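[INFO] parsing input record for D-alanyl-D-alanine carboxypeptidase
[DEBUG] input buffer:
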Amino acid sequence: MIRRVLAIFLLILAACIVIAVPLLILTPAGNQILSTLHLTEPTPTPALLKPMPTPTPAPILTVKGPLPSVQASAAYLLDMDTQHVLDDDNGEQPLPMASTTKIMTALVAIQTGNLEQLIPVKQDAYNRVHIDGGSSANLRVGDKIPLKELLYGLLLPSGDDAAVAIADELGEGSQETFVQRMNLFAYRLHLFQTHYTNVDGLTLEDNAPHYTTAADLARLAQYAMSIPLFAQIVHTPKYYLPATASHLAYTWLTTNNLLTTYDGMLGIKTGHTYAAGYCLVFAAERNKHHLIGVILNSPSEVQRDHDVAKMLNWGFSLPLLPSSS
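[DEBUG] output buffer:
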């Protein structure tokens, strides 16, 4: 009898515990009581977070020592890989730019024309060379040359006749329309200190508002060199176009002497008029570094090429140091 009573008592006690423990967990007082009995799980100690390491800045070509001395009205050198300006000598001064104008002429032609369309050579293209004294691709009036091929005649021998022929056709008979597109394209590229009045850079009026800056030209050239066809053309020392039923055969040589004399030269465009002096937009590569630069109004072709080589050698010799920014 006693055993039966004891069993019933223990059963009732167990039932009370089963009912009471959840109720205790749901109340602050119950939690306090249970914690003294070590019935609740201990709160885990949070792991200490390791601080993130500070990233090491990528090394860039860093200007040390004096800048290269050049004989020109403006000089500008840009690291194409980092957009770091290495040399800026009067780079924001508006100046005439002669045939470096044809960088924009070629870009507008590539962007707006059909590379396979035939470009007719008209009398005004011939006159631009033989009457106005422009540089020549030796085009024959009446020839019809595919635009892609004629771009070599525009950029290698710096043919003013090629520029006029392209503008006549793509401007729908109006060089002024083509020039408007050039200025619009300059605006879209944020070249706010650049303005064109013609397609070849040959200014016959002393005060013609045809100008750019070395800094603008460097930015324009960098964009141009990102277009594979353009980069291919300006990297070509000599181009031969066989005769077809629509045109004569042509051989065009680059006016950029450094393309064959400076190791790593990639292009891009020369220029010269009396007002602009000797100009060169240039790009080169060495040890996987790419530099692009501009010289405007150098006193001679020899001096210009000498100074460009000096600027590039100086730029490529700069130490690679972590950026401070």
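[INFO] Residues 2-27 form one domain.
[INFO] shutting down worker
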